[in-house]
Design a protein that fits this description.
- By secondary structure, the protein is mainly alpha-helical.
- The protein is built from 15 helices and 4 strands.
- The strands form 2 sheets. The protein has a two-stranded antiparallel sheet.
- Helix 6 packs across helix 8.
- It starts with a helix and ends with a strand.
- About 5% of the residues have low confidence.
């Protein structure tokens, strides 16, 4: 994970350097939004591969259902082997790799974790931001003699959340520690220092505050921590959850046509109910995480959802051509199969026995005669 973190950290640092050349105000938030856009572009090929496979699998579901029905109840090794071979032949025929749908998800997981780790501690990767925190740390060490005592109430909480130990005597380590303080903790810390050095510390913090403030919030704060003073911060997790719901809903709609094709095979799509559940669970989870985590991460989720909504539209356009080609091929082959399996009838002449009525027979034993009749019988081509 360290290599992935460093790669994404280097990308975020380059973006941040470019943003502050234009202006320092809200530089961190703007960098996160641009960084999210770059990350989503890099992950587009994986998303495209995953959805191409998912849609293809859904479209051939009726054919897969027929194979499964053919070997239903047959548990012997030979039957199971034949079923596997027929399914593999079907995948090969339509150029679908069932494992290609899982591979992008497996690859994306460490990448997403790398993004998450970088955004949890941007000061470790953004040189300009790290320099500002080091400058604040040096100012505190030089001017506040009891700073370790004043910071001690926050140390256990920060070390527990970051799973790191901080040497508050070292200015670099202290700077990393200070980057995790919320606005409320900063205010409490400054209120306890000697009034004669308050201005010195606040001056050292000016550039850092410019970098981190966005729409009236500091991106290092959590909505839960702001509720007592800025109750409207609750809008952030609500927007994060709502954007997740809209994106998930759009994804379900984009797969709706393929799900319909699966239903034509006589069975419902097994992923349909799971997707409906995810469409409810994911927004709730996202909103809950966004409520308790730094706003910078919530901003990443919101920006990511908006970008993916646009990206999904583009992906759908790219896959339409493939869908049309596969639909045409499947329809042609299904029509041929219907013709080959069609049952017709033909007329045939057949002799059947009949017996004269008793009153027609006079002093004779009953006789059996035959007559020719025309009858339709089924014939398979």
């Amino acid at each position: 994970m360290g290599i992935i973190n460093n790669i994404f950290g280097a990308i975020l640092n380059v973006i941040f350097e470019g943003v502050i050349m234009i202006g320092p105000v809200a530089a961190l938030a703007i960098s996160i939004i641009i960084f999210t856009l770059v990350a989503r572009i890099l992950l587009t090929p994986l998303q495209l591969s995953s959805q191409r496979t998912s849609r293809g699998m859904s479209k051939i579901q009726p054919e897969l259902n027929k194979i499964q029905e053919k070997y239903k109840g047959k548990t012997d090794q030979e039957s199971q082997l034949k079923q596997t071979q027929e399914m593999q032949a079907l995948y090969k025929k339509y150029k679908i790799n069932p494992f290609a749908g899982c591979l992008p998800l497996i690859i994306q997981f460490p990448l997403i974790m790398g993004l998450f780790n970088v955004l949890r501690a941007p000061v470790n990767y953004i040189k300009a931001l790290g320099a500002e925190y080091n400058n604040i740390a040096t100012t505190i060490i030089d001017n506040v003699t009891n700073y370790q005592e004043l910071l001690q109430p926050y140390q256990s909480t920060i070390e527990a959340s970051t799973r790191l130990k901080y040497d508050l005597v070292n200015d670099t380590s202290l700077g990393q520690f200070l980057s995790h303080l919320t606005t409320g903790q900063w205010k409490e810390f400054i209120s306890n220092v000697d009034p004669s050095v308050v201005q010195t510390i606040t001056t050292a913090m000016e550039k850092k505050n410019e970098f981190e403030t966005f729409l009236g919030f500091s991106v290092v704060d959590t909505p839960s921590g702001l509720m007592s003073t800025q109750w409207w911060a609750i809008l952030i997790p609500i927007i994060a959850g709502a954007s997740t719901y809209i994106f998930t809903k759009l994804t379900m709609q984009s797969n709706g046509q393929a799900q319909t094709a699966a239903a034509k095979g006589g069975q419902s799509n097994p992923g349909d109910s799971m997707m409906k559940t995810m469409n409810i669970v994911m927004p709730i989870m996202t909103g809950a995480f966004a409520y308790t985590m730094p706003i910078g991460l919530a901003l990443y989720w919101i920006a990511g959802n908006v970008i993916m909504l646009i990206q999904q539209k583009i992906v759908n356009k790219m896959l339409e051509k493939q869908d049309a080609k596969l639909d045409a091929l499947l329809e042609k082959e299904r029509e041929e199969a219907r013709k080959n399996n069609k049952i017709t009838t033909k007329k045939v002449m057949k002799k059947v026995p009949i017996e004269k009525k008793p009153e027609e027979v006079v002093n004779e034993a009953p006789k059996t005669y035959t007559k020719k009749v025309i009858k339709k019988v089924p014939v398979q081509k």
